[in-house]
Each structure stands twice: as C-alpha cells, then as structure tokens.
Amino acid sequence: MTTSAQVISGKVISEAVKAELRDEIAQVIAQGITPGLAVVIVGENPASQVYVRNKAKTCLQLGMHSEIHELPESTSQEELLAKVTALNNDANIHGILIQLPLPKHINESLVLDAISPDKDVDGFHPMQVGNMVIGNRSYLPCTPAGVMEMLKRSNITIAGKHAVVVGRSNIVGKPVAMLLLREHATVTICHSKTPDLGAITRQADILVVAIGRAEAINAEHIKPGAIVIDVGINRTEDGRLVGDVDYQSVLEVAGGITPVPGGVGPMTITMLMKNTLDAARTIHQLS
Length: 287
Ligand code: BQF
Prior knowledge:
CATH class of the largest domain: Alpha Beta
Bound molecules: ligand BQF
CATH superfamily of the largest domain: NAD(P)-binding Rossmann-like Domain
Shape: globular
C-alpha cells in the first residue's frame, strides 16, 4: 500500500482568511475609510497582466477600492518615480504595489525604495525588511506571509523543526527563512551553488522550495513525512502550470504538500489584501 500526503490547499485556506478580511474591511468602511490598493504595471508581460487583474478582482470581492495603473514599456525611470510620488500623496490609496519584473532600463530598487514605507504592502522597502529581521512590526512580504499562514492554519508545528529553504531571493527565499527562524525553526538556506542539495533537503521536516525551475525537486529529495511547500509557478511547453516540485512523486513520500495551482499563489494574493487593510487602519489610526 502506498501512503499519500495531506494536500495543503491554499485555495481553501485563502477562502477562510478572505471571509475574515471581508468582515474586517466592512468594519473599516463603516468608520468612513475604504481601503485602497494601487497596482502599477509597466509594459505588457502576459503573466504580470494576469497577476495584476487577479489582485484588482480580489480587492473588489472584499469591498476594497482598487486601481490599476498601466504604463507603457517605454516609461522612463523619472516618469515611474513621479507616479509613485503621486500615489504616495493620494489619500484614497493605502497600498502601493509595483508589479515585478520591471523593464530592464528601470532601476528596480530605486523605484521600490521610493514607495512610502507606510504604503509598502509588498514589504520590500529596506525599512520593512529591517523591521522584519529584528522582529518589529512590519508589513510582511506577501508570499512568505502566505506560506507562514498556511503552516499555521494547517496546525503544523514549526518550533524545533529543521526547515530547509531552497532559493535565496529577496522576495521569497530570504524572508521566508527569516520568518521560519522567528517561529523557532532551525533554518538552512540552499541555493544553486549548494553542492549536494538532496543531502540537505532530506534532513528537512519542513521544505520550502522557491527556485523557479519546473519539477526540480522530486521524491528523492524528501524525508518521509516532511511538509513540502512549493512556491514555484512554471508553465510547461504543453501549457500546464507546475511547481518547482514534482507533485505526483513527492505526494507518495511527504506528510503534506501544497499543490500548484491552488497552493501558495492564492495565499500570496490574500496576504496582499491583509496588508492593504492593515495599511488603511495604520494610516487612519483605526483599531
Ligand atoms: C494559483 C508571481 C512569479 C513572479 C512574479 C493564484 C497567483 C498565482 C497562482 C498570483 C506571482 C505568483 C504573483 C495562483 C501573484 C502568485 O491559483 O495557484 C494566484 O496571482 N500570484 C505576482 O504578482 O508576481 C509574480 C510569481
């Protein structure tokens, strides 16, 4: 008989979180403030366009205000900075998100750092990052926050566990490692220069994979019973969406696994909504 991992559905968990947010947003609206998110997209990357629409749609579902600012690929850095300044000063906007990636002629960190930290709902500003690392209050980056919320709502113990993070990006790998550490895991970060990846991942009680390579992690990388969180979203040649984890093979070995689609992705969007609500409450000093 083969055993099968518990499927950790981000779709199901995010619906529960969104139901709570909807009530909280209604309470803020009753106090005269409608939380508002502005998403800025530069150029016409089709994946980015899908993500941006998804964010706007979710705002509307929860009763929040949302704006999409579409700028042409040819937008200069100065023009984009001027857009950020205008949104920083816009009283109807509580969260500002610059959809990544930006065109190559634009200095990404220069633009992200121009977002007022109190509207930085992606949590990418160095001030947010610093506060997160120290353990101060901050807006947590949405994907790492979504991963932590999934673990928490699935009653997975983190303290004392060996958590292995594969990938070291500023958007996912590094911050998720920091949040796992904050919850008292022993944390190892692996990356493309790690010589024997499997030797490390096989020690993981909790394995978070964010490398951006389709189905690169398989059953041989997994300790039996481990919790596997797949952050990857890759499109195969035949048009399917797959994660960084070979789902079918890992399902047989792991104790829990997140699917793609319907895993971390929906949680990312939901945590963005939470950050936007929190930003509105903070800016207007509501409870
Ligand atoms: C799902 C993103 C890489 C680079 C930039 C739901 C999303 C995705 C999948 C989504 C992502 C990934 C987003 C699912 C936003 C997550 O059902 O599995 C939602 O919209 N995401 C982004 O804005 O920028 C990215 C991944």
